[in-house]
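Lecture notes, continued. The same structure-token format from the folding unit now serves as the input rather than the output. Read the line below as a description of shape only.
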């Protein structure tokens, strides 16, 4: 009697139509959730500036508009009429989907000669899915400055797909389409220069792989030359429009480092950008769980590649080598900028590298057979969607904060000249008001606090004050307030008083009384820093501000020195009504307001000695207890007070010595285009100041 033993059933692979439907459903759900915070994000300062430039530019080749690339400039002009901001996001989503589709189709065509059609098709769709949901790709959705790069990647990918299809299927029309897309990529961004290398490499490995190697090398070089000529039409057009040769900005970073330090910095930057590719986390919103999730996603993406490499080490060794070379090539043709977990402002510069990374992960995720070809891409896409959503929360927070500040700026622009002090250029490592100047209303300027202090000292706002048209907009206690500064009038009250920590009734112009010196007795407690507070005519008896000083031995007894010229609160006061000891100097002999701080006991101008500037006179002065805490610094400033460098000054037998040569070269300042300030400090606060213009 024979027993009928049932044969084991072999599971059938999931039908292609079902896979496509599942992948489509997964993508729609994940993308909707991942990108939802971005559609609630208000425009950043950079986006407002891009729109303002697009509306005012006289030509599509204006260098201020998308670097002079005509197609990207045209796209920005389209964005300038699409308001509100969610329409910009919608158009960016359309471009991202086009780029993802092109990258996926190009990856499929590149793999087709080396594998079956089913594997290549699955790898192409996985590549498109991962590229679209990668957190660094979604960074392109919230930055109009990322549009040129996204456009260029989209047309470059379409060009690569059309070229491979034309060569593999012998379709001349597709070759024409490839050339047209290459031309459009060139008119979008400088990163299209990398398409020459991409097309040459694809010609060598995937166009006609049965040919002899030398024949493939010759055809690859011919393709590189033809694509370079096509892409260079953009450079020629920009040069004709500008009336001079317009070298691509990308070429500037191809200059090799001249020192070991520069080479190490370049290597560190490359490793930082590589780490951001594999761990695309915004540290402030995702935190530790974000890094853990990104690490798990990377392991899930690499696991099929490791398994396949063990099964076919020769084939997958070549694939991994080509993948690594492609990543290096993508970075060579990218605008290199720092991208770290706390500063993702320039994350969109990695969009080309993300395409290569997605192609590698897409191929690896389908290297295994059966339903795992659906499971692995879905798991990676799920992890990317979670990280994209977390990063989107940071963009939303920054956008909303920027929008609130912008409302205050717009409300303050009422015909007077408004100086906005310390408005954040970046928040959470992302662009807030960075580059917003072209979009500012007429009569509004942005200054950081040090820039404002330097510009005020240079007399930048004197005429505005004389006409009573100057307003200061600044944050106080988290709230934005506007201080309307009246026309200056002569002071009528005293500037000196004795033996009382509270002054009599004053009538001081803060811009004319820039220092306070309080002379105390020898028994005063100098262990705590002195603090002065004041009230204004508008605040009544309420405190209008305060400033911390330092105890110094400028004479026989300790003196409290207050550098009021460096206090924005003091300069924003309309008129000082009274001053008093907030801490540390209520027992005093005399208090006196001065026009400015006393200079250090040195010659009024430095003497040049080779590379050194020497301020003579202090070298022979004996040290005392107060001098032991003193330090000196030299600030070099451009005449517009925007750019500055602070240098440490050494005290020697000859006086105070400093080497400003490197700082002057970095600032590109000539002998007649700089201002300098020599300051004596105690624990970072200034007690003496000497200013001058021009080099010795």
């Amino acid at each position: 009697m024979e027993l009928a033993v049932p044969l084991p059933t072999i599971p059938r692979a999931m039908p292609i139509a079902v896979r496509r439907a599942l992948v489509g459903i997964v993508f729609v759900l994940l993308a909707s959730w991942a990108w939802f915070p971005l559609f609630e994000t208000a425009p950043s300062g950079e986006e407002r500036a891009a729109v303002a430039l697009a509306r005012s530019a006289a030509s599509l080749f204006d260098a201020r508009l998308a670097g002079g690339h005509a197609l990207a400039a045209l796209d920005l002009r389209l964005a300038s009429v699409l308001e509100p901001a969610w329409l910009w996001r919608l158009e960016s989503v359309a471009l991202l989907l086009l780029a993802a589709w092109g990258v996926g189709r190009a990856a499929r065509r590149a793999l087709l000669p080396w594998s079956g059609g089913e594997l290549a098709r699955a790898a192409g769709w996985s590549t498109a899915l991962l590229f679209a949901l990668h957190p660094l790709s979604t960074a392109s959705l919230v930055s109009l400055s990322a549009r040129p790069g996204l456009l260029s990647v989209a047309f470059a990918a379409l060009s690569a797909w059309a070229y491979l299809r034309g060569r593999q299927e012998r379709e001349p029309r597709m070759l024409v389409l490839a050339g047209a897309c290459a031309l459009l990529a060139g008119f979008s961004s400088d990163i299209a220069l990398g398409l020459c290398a991409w097309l040459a490499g694809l010609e060598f490995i995937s166009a006609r792989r049965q040919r002899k190697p030398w024949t493939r090398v010759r055809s690859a070089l011919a393709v590189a030359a033809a694509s370079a000529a096509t892409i260079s039409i953009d450079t020629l057009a920009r040069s004709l429009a500008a009336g001079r040769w317009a070298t691509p900005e990308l070429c500037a970073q191809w200059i090799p480092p001249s020192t070991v330090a520069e080479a190490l910095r370049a290597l560190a930057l490359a490793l930082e950008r590589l780490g951001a590719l594999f761990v695309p986390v915004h540290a402030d919103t995702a935190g530790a769980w974000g890094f853990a999730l990104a690490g798990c996603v990377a392991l899930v993406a690499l696991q099929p590649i490791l398994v396949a490499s063990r099964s076919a080490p020769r084939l997958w060794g070549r694939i991994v080598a080509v993948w690594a070379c492609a990543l290096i090539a993508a970075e060579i043709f990218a605008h290199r900028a720092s991208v770290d977990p706390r500063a993702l402002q320039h994350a969109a510069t990695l969009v080309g590298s993300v395409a290569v990374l997605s192609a590698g992960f897409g191929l690896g995720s389908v290297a295994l057979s059966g339903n795992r070809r659906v499971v692995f891409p879905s798991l990676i896409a799920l992890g990317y969607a979670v990280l994209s959503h977390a990063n989107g929360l940071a963009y939303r927070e920054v956008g909303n904060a920027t929008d609130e500040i912008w409302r205050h700026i717009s409300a303050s622009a009422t015909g007077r000249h408004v100086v906005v002090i310390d408005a954040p250029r970046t928040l959470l490592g992302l662009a807030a008001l960075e580059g917003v100047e072209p979009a500012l209303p007429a009569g509004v300027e942005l200054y950081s606090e040090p820039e404002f202090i330097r510009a005020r000292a240079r007399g930048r706002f004197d005429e505005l004050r004389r006409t009573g048209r100057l307003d200061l907009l600044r944050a106080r206690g988290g709230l934005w307030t506007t201080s309307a500064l009246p026309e200056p009038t002569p002071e009528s009250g005293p500037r000196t008083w004795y033996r009382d920590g509270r002054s009599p009734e004053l009538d001081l112009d803060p811009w004319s009384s820039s220092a306070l010196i309080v002379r105390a007795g020898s028994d005063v407690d100098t262990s705590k820093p002195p603090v002065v507070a004041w009230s204004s005519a508008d605040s009544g008896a309420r405190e209008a501000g305060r400033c911390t000083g330092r105890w110094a031995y400028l004479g026989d007894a300790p003196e409290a020195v207050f550098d009021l010229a460096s206090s924005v609160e003091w300069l924003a006061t309309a008129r000082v009504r009274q001053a008093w000891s907030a801490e540390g100097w209520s027992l005093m002999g005399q208090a006196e307001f001065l026009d400015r701080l006393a200079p250090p006991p040195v010659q009024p101008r430095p003497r040049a000695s080779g590379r050194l500037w020497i301020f003579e006179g202090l070298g022979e002065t004996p040290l005392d207890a107060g001098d032991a805490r003193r330090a000196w610094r030299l600030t070099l400033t451009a005449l517009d007070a925007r750019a500055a460098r602070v240098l440490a000054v050494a005290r020697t037998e000859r006086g105070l010595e400093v080497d400003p040569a490197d700082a002057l070269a970095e600032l590109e300042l000539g002998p007649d285009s700089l201002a300098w300030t020599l300051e004596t400090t105690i624990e970072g606060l200034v007690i003496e100041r000497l200013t001058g213009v021009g080099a010795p």
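Point for the exam: The two ends are 115 Å apart (CA to CA).
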